[in-house]
Design brief:
The chain is built from six helices and twelve strands. The chain is of the alpha/beta class.
């Protein structure tokens, strides 16, 4: 079993009280006193621990900890035209190791009735927490507030940007320590003025992600897997 704990709470020999949601998880999984579990604080600390029930609460004694280095920044800016499909991508971000998810409002996503709004952002944050726990990702992705496309100039400082485009070029290599950001448009893609802005203000390169038109969630996963593979290939070469 795996549980989440508050950042900074995991030190050797500490006794951590699980919060209500994690206590519920222990009960659903039929945890028993003395079970060996894993605790994550979402900020790079992984603990081996022993759980026990104390009244209606559950506590975990931290037996040992491992510190996982912070990953190289990997930003996904997503012009989501549908709230529910955006939330599914949020879950996949944690599974794939994306470090920051930025919901963006574009010209065409604003025309979609089911588009993501501020009220869905907190749901996305809960999704990435749960997905990080389930997948064992020790670094919970950051989910930004909803931004206009122009906000990426501030959020992504120092990031090498790409955007999915059917007319783009294949991406063939990446340096493993290079901060990377992908901008994925909504259904219908980016408008011509937005494409121009991406090139002029972010110096973003258009990248080919497949021979057919992709839904935004498919393009997001394709970009993430491509980035992970190229980074790993570069590490192996080094």
């Amino acid at each position: 079993m795996r549980f989440l704990a508050a950042p900074g709470s995991l030190v050797t020999d500490a006794v951590v009280t699980l919060d209500a949601s994690e206590t519920h998880h222990a009960e659903v999984r039929r945890g028993k006193a003395g079970d060996q579990v894993e605790l994550l604080d979402g900020a790079g600390t992984v603990a081996a621990a022993t759980i026990r029930a104390v009244g209606k609460d559950w506590t975990a004694h931290v037996d040992s900890i491992t510190l996982v280095p912070e990953p190289t920044p990997f930003v996904l800016a997503l012009g989501a035209g549908d709230r529910d499909r955006f939330l599914a991508v949020a879950q996949q971000c944690a599974e794939l190791g994306i470090t920051r998810l930025v919901p963006i409002e574009t010209e065409r996503s604003r025309q979609v009735e089911t588009r993501i709004r501020e009220s869905a952002v907190e749901k996305a944050r809960r999704r990435v927490r749960e997905a990080s726990k389930q997948s064992g990702n020790p670094w919970i992705p950051i989910v930004d507030d909803l931004l206009p496309l122009s906000g990426l100039g501030i959020t992504g400082s120092g990031v090498h940007w790409f955007f999915g485009d059917p007319g783009g070029e294949p991406l063939e290599q990446l340096h493993p320590a290079e901060p990377v950001g992908w901008v994925i448009g909504p259904e219908g893609g980016f408008s011509p003025s937005e494409v121009a802005w991406l090139g002029e203000r972010l110096d973003a390169r258009p990248i080919w992600l497949g021979p057919h038109i992709l839904r935004f969630e498919t393009a997001a996963v394709a970009a993430a897997v491509l980035t992970l593979q190229l980074r790993e290939r570069a590490r192996m070469v080094r």
